[in-house]
Amino acid sequence: MSSEMEKDPLLEGEDCCHSGERKSHHSDKMKKNLESRLNRIEGQVRGIKRLIDRDTYCDDVITQIAATQAALNSVAKILLEAHMKECVVDRIQSGDLEVVDEVLVTVQKLMKK
Question: Which of 28, 83, 90, 95 has the most crowded CB, counting CB atoms within 10 A?
Answer without folding.
Answer: 83
